[in-house]
Structures are given as structure tokens and as C-alpha cells.
Write a structure and sequence with these properties.
Elements (H helix, E strand, L loop, with lengths): L2 H7 L3 H17 L3 H8 L2 H11 L1 H13 L6 H23 L4 H9 L5 H11 L6 E4 L13 E3 L6 E6 L5 E6 L4 E5 L5 E5 L6 E6 L5 E6 L4 E5 L5 E5 L6 E6 L5 E6 L4 E5 L5 E5 L6 E6 L5 E6 L4 E5 L5 E5 L6 E6 L5 E6 L4 E5 L5 E5 L6 E6 L5 E6 L2 E6 L5 E6 L5 E6 L5 E6 L4 E5 L16 E6 L5 E6 L3 E6 L5 E6 L5 E6 L5 E6 L4 E5 L5 E5 L6 E6 L5 E6 L3 E6 L4 E7 L5 E6 L5 E6 L4 E5 L5 E5 L6 E6 L5 E6 L4 E5 L5 E5 L6 E6 L5 E6 L3 E6 L4 E7 L4 E6 L5 E6 L4 E7 L6
Antiparallel strand pairs: 1-56, 2-29, 3-4, 4-5, 5-6, 7-8, 8-9, 9-10, 11-12, 12-13, 13-14, 15-16, 16-17, 17-18, 19-20, 20-21, 21-22, 23-24, 24-25, 25-26, 27-28, 28-29, 30-31, 31-32, 32-33, 34-35, 35-36, 36-37, 38-39, 39-40, 40-41, 42-43, 43-44, 44-45, 46-47, 47-48, 48-49, 50-51, 51-52, 52-53, ...
Helix pairs in contact: 2-5, 4-5, 5-6, 6-7, 7-8
């Protein structure tokens, strides 16, 4: 316990709060740099301040050392900047769950060999005696890497974002039917706007910043008061989903486009439809209005862009050149050029007066879904899949690539000062980026795509991960070092299981096959064929001689692992089968399916013994306890369920995850389980009580998890490609 914590313990609650709020400022004002540095590197102070007043106030304490006349060495200043950066990146998580502080700091700062940071992290490791998950590697974004801040709050894909003219707030639109207004400096969610009855696809903010307009799959647009979040008007007239909109520079009119192949011009004060623009032969996806307000450009699935006279609704020009749907368009500040983004993986720069194609920007490897031009017109940002690219608009040269999202980036907006940009993604988050530094996230793991499964060897010394990047990787669980990469599958790898002797492993893939590997050499030994669709799960029997696979073809197959021969096919599920587990005695197996059920099978005869019902959505995974008497399932209904395997009865429902649960594993002692979820958390459960006892938050959805034989080492994989190595602390005899 630090001296600071001892002093706090002697104070009344009022004095304690006063000390936490004012002490850093007092030290800065009195130019006590050394004491301020000691305070801000003391984990006990950081924890107490966070608990008392929240993350933002704590972040601002570190600014005191930077902006005041406090005398700090270059090293001290650097240390404080790193700690502040770690807290800032962790802020969304810490605002929800302050107990995540130790895990977040360790996950972001473990690789920095600085005495003050190492000392602080040693304090963090001892922060409590009860259960918690401690990262063994720095496997979260580090300070200075990736985005400046992540905004979380939406529960579904974020499809659009707009930044207010003063740059202080932003509005996002989501498939969760809502819009959210954010403070761009703190990342705080200010308001949630509800009223749409279906996905919100687009949002634009009026030039005065007082109102915003949204477009939705419910075929309407809505005008909102941005200060109160009140719905002012609903605009109806489109006969299908409204995909995008733009507000004229004078704020008096807006243009929307729709899946009904038209654009409409609206009076924003009355909500009256003024004009309908027809000419596109397929859905209109995007629209932008020129700075003078006299023309607009639309982008369509018909592979073209069209320039319109906004006063008469006349089509002036049609821009052709893209070979696939045009998904986005932005007009330069001078109005003379525009940039379009297309499913053909390119951007094109156009002369808006003549409609001539000036340049094609190539470098994206997937559909380009969004584009924004900086206020100075010299750079543009475009998005594809999980990344954004910054381009020099004059030369067409790619300047930087921004990585960090774990799902497709749907939209991007650049702040009025041009220094920051905000991206919106299918991973339900928004990220704020520094456009000048464009810090790229370093690859910390080796996988370049989603980690779908992990398995730990019987001796606990190695783990194998499976990924949508078509590979498997073998890791040293103590050091987190990558030992081998297994290549051979032609599509993503969905599952992996290790044989009881640890010498071989079996992988399941989207290429409809399974492969048996030598775990020492990484050599492919056999390929198992027979499934007609993707193979999603695999389990190996305790005797190591047979394996069972689960597939999108609605079947399970039992295999002879020595010969690769298919022994039996199990057919009773009515939808794709996602997972399978074999009981410790090898006599039964349990499968999990999208048909919302689990089935218990006799592995010798292939007979269906029981069907377990109770989940209200897809069942994604199942694990069987070491005694074989109970099993746990994980589901898209955000819950886990504990089942009696003899009777098929549901014993308990475990609630706590806020999104789909993808995976579950049970510790060897049968007393605890771990689950992995789309909500970006791993949770530890006490199986006797059904209570959540520990949690760890990452930066992407957790797809898989596994317990080592020691019952305290955990390996998990997430949607960003990271493989996490953690230790369950606070377990009796586990340290």
C-alpha cells in the first residue's frame, strides 16, 4: 500500500474527495513537479481518482503537467503522456466498469520498460485479492497507436457520422434505429435520438449546427433539434429505404436519395417535398451538394454519378467510368472537383464542370464505401473493409493507412479544422483519428483477420488459434510468442481441437474440409472431405481416435482420425450446426445449432438421445463439464445456459453479456467457466451460483476462449486478429 493510500484511508469521505479533486492542481500551481509526477504514477491515486470522479477528470490531471510551468524531465513527461494515453484509450471501458483499470493499464503498458511505469504496473497486479483477469502481454492498443479515442454506445453497426460546424460535437446513425450525439473532445455520449422504426442510414448537420436530419430504412427522414434531441419534423415521400442526404449551404433545403431510384429536394423549415429527381436506373446510394448550393452530385448502384441543377431538378451530366456500384461521393471545397468511391475498389476524381474523369486512385483491395475531403481540399480519406486510407488529391498518392476497426468501416467525416476525422464501423464503434500523424496500429499478434477459435494443449504449454485469414498459429502460452503458422486451408478457419496426446490437431474450415496437423512440425497430415458446406466446429474424443465435426450443411460427421475416413453422419438439426463437444467418457456428444437447439448424441450409434430447447436464438457453442453431468451453451440471445446432460433439463441461465455470446469453456475443476462475446468482454462465471465473478474488456468482439489445464491461464481471440493471454488472479492456490 502506497503512502498516498494510507493517507486517504485516514480521511473522512468529504476530505478524501476534496484531496482527490484538488491535489494535482495544487501541486501544479506550486510548481512541485516531482511530487506531481509521483502522484500521477501512483496506481493507488489513479484508482481512487477514477473511482471518485471518473476517467475524464483523471485524464485532465495529466494535462496539468503539460500545460503548467511544472519542471519535469523529458523522461518524466514521456511517462505521464503514456499513462494518460492508456487511460484515454480505456476511458469508454472505465466509465462502464471501473474495476477494469488494472487490466487496461497492463494490457496497454506492459511493453514499456520505464521504472515508473513498471512500478505502477506492479502495484496494479496487486490491486485486489478477489477474482480478476490479468493480461500477460500488452495486447491492447498502446498509447500513440491507432485512433485517439473510441466512442462506444451503439448496439448495432454504425452507418454514418457527421461533425458539427464548430467541431465540438458529432452525430452518429446506426442500425440500432438510433442516432447519438457525442462530445468529440471527451468522447462522452450526450444524447440518444429515438423515433425511427428501422435502421438509420445517414445523418447531416445544418450549417448553423442547431438541427440535424436523418435518413432511415423506414422510408422517412427526420429533422432533429441537436440541443434537446427533440424530433421536429418527419419527411415522407420516398417509397423505399432512404440511404443518404445532404443539406444545402444555406440550410433551407436538403436532398435525399433512396432505394426507390430517386432523389428528393425538401424544404427543411416546413418539411415539404419540392422536387423529385429521376434518371438513375438503380438505387441511389449517396449525394453531395456543391458549396454554392446550385448543383448536387448523386452516386448510384447503376455504376454512375449524376450532376443535378438543384433549382430545377434537371440532370446536367452523367459521369461514367466505374465498373461497379458507386457508394459515396464528396465535393471539394472549391466546388471544381469531386471524388467518388466504388465497389470496383477505386476512387475517381472528376471535373464537376465538364464531367471529365481526372484521376483514378488505386490501392484499395476491397469496395471503397466512404470518402471525405479535407477542408483545404488537398487530402481525402476513404474507407474499405476495416481500414481507412488518406490520399493526396493532387498527386493521387496514398499517404497513410489507418487500422483499428474490427469490422467494415461504413462512413468517415473530417472535422472543420482538418486535424481530426471520425470513422463509423460495423463493429458498433466510432473512432477519432489524428489526420496529421495518422498513427497506424501495430500488429501485435500475427493474424490479419478475425480469430475464430483457440485450443490449449493438454500440457498447457502451447495454444493454437484459428483465423479467418485462412491460417492457424501455434503459440507459447508463457511468453505469447508465435511458434508456427499452419497454412493449407483455402478459406477461413472456423475451429480447432487438439488431440489428448498433444501431438496432432484438427482444424475446420469454410473451405468445407477439416485438416489434421502435426503440432510439432506444423505439417499437414490429412485432409477430411465430405461436408458440402463450411465446417464450423470440431471436437476430438478422449481416446484420440475419433473426431466429430459440425457444419453449415446441417450435419455432424464422425471421423476416424488415423485414416481420415468418415464413419457416420448425424442428421437431425434443421439449420447449420455451429459447435460440438464430446463428453469425457466419449460415449455422447452435444451439438449446438442455429435452429436454437442443442442435441445430445450417442457417438457409437449416431442416435439422437435428447434435444435441449430454451434459447431464443442461435446456439453458437457448447462445453461439457469434466464430470460429464452438466453442459453450458452460448447463444445469440446474449445468454449462457447450464444443462443437466442426463435429463436434458435447463438448470440455470447466465445473464450479463449485452450482445451475442460466441464461445464458452469450462475450467478443469468444473467450478468456473469463461465466455466470449460480441460485447467485447470475456466473463468468468461461478457455476455453482451462476454469478459473474470477473470480466475483461477488449477493443473488439471476443470470438473464442479456452482455459489451460492449470485453471488460471486463459487464451482468447478477438475480431481484430489479436490473441490474448491472461491469468485469472485471486484463485486459491492459483498464484
Amino acid at each position: 500500500m502506497s503512502k498516498f493510500k494510507q493517507r486517504l484511508g485516514k480521511m473522512s469521505p468529504e476530505k478524501r474527495l476534496y484531496a482527490l479533486e484538488t491535489l494535482p492542481g495544487h501541486l501544479a500551481e506550486s510548481v512541485q513537479g516531482e511530487r506531481l509526477h509521483q502522484l500521477l504514477t501512483d496506481f493507488d491515486f489513479i484508482e481512487a481518482k477514477l473511482d471518485a470522479v471518473g476517467a475524464q477528470a483523471l485524464i485532465e490531471d495529466y494535462d496539468l503537467a503539460r500545460i503548467s510551468d511544472v519542471l519535469l524531465s523529458e523522461g518524466q513527461a514521456g511517462t505521464l503522456k503514456l499513462i494518460q494515453g492508456a487511460i484515454r484509450k480505456s476511458a469508454p471501458i472505465l466509465e462502464r466498469d471501473k474495476t477494469q483499470l488494472a487490466g487496461q493499464l497492463l494490457g496497454r503498458l506492459l511493453d514499456f520498460e520505464m521504472p515508473e511505469i513498471e512500478g505502477m504496473l506492479e502495484q496494479a497486479k496487486q490491486w485486489k485479492d478477489s477474482l480478476w483477469l490479468r493480461p500477460l502481454r500488452a495486447n491492447l492498443e498502446r498509447p500513440g497507436e491507432g485512433c485517439l479515442r473510441t466512442l462506444t454506445g451503439h448496439t448495432e453497426s454504425v452507418w454514418a457520422v457527421a461533425i458539427a460546424p464548430d467541431g465540438k460535437t458529432a452525430i452518429s446513425a446506426s442500425w440500432d434505429n438510433t442516432l447519438k450525439i457525442w462530445d468529440t473532445e471527451t468522447g462522452t455520449e450526450l444524447l440518444t435520438l429515438t423515433g425511427h422504426t428501422s435502421s438509420v442510414n445517414a445523418v447531416a448537420i445544418a450549417p448553423d449546427g442547431k438541427t440535424a436530419i436523418s435518413a432511415s430504412d423506414d422510408n422517412t427522414l427526420k429533422i432533429w433539434d441537436t440541443e434537446t434531441g427533440t424530433e421536429l419534423l418527419t419527411l415522407t415521400g420516398h417509397t423505399n429505404s432512404v440511404y443518404a442526404l445532404a443539406i444545402a449551404p444555406d440550410g433551407k433545403t436538403a436532398i435525399s436519395d433512396s432505394d426507390d431510384n430517386t432523389l428528393k429536394i425538401w424544404d427543411t423549415e416546413t418539411g415539404t417535398e419540392l422536387l423529385t429527381l429521376t434518371g438513375h436506373t438503380s438505387s441511389v446510394i449517396a449525394v453531395a451538394i456543391a458549396p454554392d448550393g446550385k448543383t448536387a452530385i448523386s452516386a448510384s448502384k447503376d455504376n454512375t454519378l449524376k450532376i443535378w441543377d438543384t433549382e430545377t431538378g434537371t440532370e446536367l451530366l452523367s459521369l461514367t467510368g466505374h465498373t461497379r456500384a458507386v457508394l459515396a461521393v464528396a465535393i471539394a471545397p472549391d466546388g471544381k472537383t469531386a471524388i467518388s468511391a466504388s465497389k470496383d475498389n477505386t476512387l475517381k476524381i472528376w471535373d464537376t464542370e465538364t464531367g471529365t474523369e481526372l484521376r483514378t486512385l488505386t490501392g484499395h483491395t476491397n469496395s471503397v464505401r466512404a470518402v471525405a475531403i479535407a477542408p483545404d481540399g488537398k487530402t481525402a480519406i476513404a474507407s474499405e473493409e476495416k481500414t481507412l486510407k488518406i490520399w493526396d488529391t493532387e498527386t493521387g498518392r496514398e499517404l497513410k493507412t489507418l487500422t483499428g476497426h474490427s469490422w467494415r468501416v461504413n462512413a468517415v467525416a473530417i472535422a472543420p479544422d482538418g486535424k481530426t476525422a471520425i470513422s463509423a464501423s460495423g463493429d458498433t464503434t466510432l473512432k477519432i483519428w489524428d489526420t496529421e500523424t495518422g498513427s497506424e496500429l501495430k500488429t501485435l499478434t500475427g493474424h490479419s483477420d478475425r480469430v475464430t477459435a483457440v485450443a490449449i494443449s493438454p500440457d498447457g504449454k502451447t495454444a493454437i488459434s484459428a483465423s479467418e485469414d485462412n491460417t492457424l498459429k501455434i503459440w507459447d502460452t508463457e511468453t505469447g510468442t508465435e511458434l508456427l503458422t499452419l497454412t493449407g486451408h483455402s478459406y477461413g478457419v472456423s475451429a480447432v481441437a487438439i488431440a489428448p496426446d498433444g501431438k496432432t490437431a484438427i482444424s475446420a474450415s469454410e473451405d468445407n474440409t477439416l485438416k489434421i496437423w502435426d503440432t510439432e512440425t506444423g505439417t499437414e497430415l490429412l485432409t477430411l472431405t465430405g461436408h458440402t458446406r463450411a465446417v464450423r466446429g470440431v471436437a476430438i474424443a478422449p481416446n484420440g481416435k475419433t473426431a466429430i465435426s459440425a457444419s453449415r450443411d446441417k450435419t455432424l460427421k464422425i471421423w476416424d482420425t488415423e485414416t481420415g475416413t468418415e464413419v457416420r453422419t448425424l442428421t437431425r438439426h434443421t439449420s447449420l450446426v455451429r459447435g460440438v463437444a464430446i463428453a469425457p467418457d466419449g460415449k455422447t456428444a452435444i451439438s449446438a445449432s442455429v435452429d436454437k437447439t442443442l442435441k445430445i448424441w450417442d457417438t457409437e450409434t449416431g442416435s439422437e438421445l435428447k434435444t435441449l430447447t430454451g434459447h431464443s436464438s442461435s446456439v453458437n457453442a457448447v462445453a461439457i463439464a469434466p464430470d460429464g453431468k452438466t453442459a453450458i451453451s452460448a447463444s445469440h440471445d446474449n445468454t449462457l445456459k447450464i444443462w443437466d446432460t442426463e435429463t436434458g433439463s435447463e438448470l440455470k441461465t447466465l445473464t450479463g453479456h449485452s450482445h451475442w455470446v460466441y464461445a464458452v469453456a469450462i475450467a478443469r475443476d468444473g467450478k468456473t467457466a469463461i465466455s466470449a462475446s460480441e460485447d467485447r468482454t470475456l466473463k468468468i462465471w461461478d457455476l455453482l451460483t451462476g454469478k459473474e465473478v470477473a470480466s475483461f474488456s477488449g477493443e473488439a468482439a471476443f470470438d473464442c476462449c479456452a482455459f489451460a489445464p492449470d485453471g488460471v491461464t486463459v487464451v482468447a481471440g478477438d475480431a481484430s486478429g489479436r490473441v490474448h493471454f491472461l491469468r485469472l488472479e485471486g484463485v486459491s492456490g492459483g498464484r
